[in-house]
Amino acid sequence: MKYFIIFFAVIISFNANAGTWFNDAEAFVGYDTTNYSSAFCEEGTGDVKGTSNMGARLNTWESESKRWRIGVQYTHLSCIFGRDYTVYNAIGVQATYTFWSRKR
Length: 104
Prior knowledge:
It is a single chain. The protein is mainly β. It has one domain. It is 12% helix and 44% strand. Strands 1, 2, 3, 4 and 5 form a five-stranded antiparallel beta sheet that branches. Strand 3 and strand 4 form a beta hairpin. The longest helix has 13 residues, at 2-14.
């Protein structure tokens, strides 16, 4: 399935009429907290509300107007301070539309 998603993103990108290709790549890391226990933490093992999120994104295509972007992303989620109950690893495709930007 993951190879199909990557293939799909690349095919969409190559069918685009105007725009630029492979503009940027980025890594991200973050901390999320919940009011209750995180689904990723084992109860009784420290802080069970905190979840780490990290991954990488690769922009595949950006439209000429810079409003549309298509890319692929890898994401990892797990318990940040307690013991992991379960983890989440996924690769996916993103289509992003920008309503406004100060960068133009």
